[in-house]
Amino acid sequence: MCNIENESVENVFAMALQQKLKNKIVGKIFVKCTSTDALYIQITAVDGLEYVTHLANFSDRVLNGWSAEYAAYEVFGEYKKFIMEQITSKYFY
Predict the structure, then answer these.
(1) pTM for the whole thing?
(2) Over the stretch 58-83, which tens digit does the pLDDT of each residue have?
(3) Using an 8 Å Cβ cutoff, are 75 and 53 in contact?
(4) Which of 10, 12, 38, 55 fits a disulfide with 33 by CB distance 3.0 to 4.6 angstroms?
(5) Contact indicator for 38, 52 with CB cutoff of 8 Å
(6) Are 67 and 51 in contact (CB under 8 A)?
(7) What are the residue ranges of helices labelled H in the chain?
(8) Which positions ≥6 away from 69 have C-beta within 8 Å?
(9) Adjacent-strand bridge partners of 5
(10) Residue 66 to residues 18, 23, 25, 38, 85: CA-CA distances in angstroms?
(11) Cα 35–2–49 angle (5° rounding)?
């Protein structure tokens, strides 16, 4: 699905996902569809902490009804877990 003729669907999904994440996360958020049919998401927190994830099978997920709202729910859960791990490893032994 990540090719030139479907570029508008990818861009609309990426922009919608970015907006949903911006409503919940403080920092820089970058979302794009890669040529390997994955969704690339990079979140850089205000303090410089960087989180990167790839969500595989983008086209299959979208064809099966995967929404930007649910993708944001998944990413936010993973990001929250990542942040908690970073905080606990920094301040606790």
Answers:
(1) 0.84
(2) 989 998 999 999 999 999 999 999 99
(3) yes
(4) 10
(5) no
(6) no
(7) 7-22, 58-63, 68-91
(8) 20
(9) none
(10) 15, 19, 21, 13, 28
(11) 60
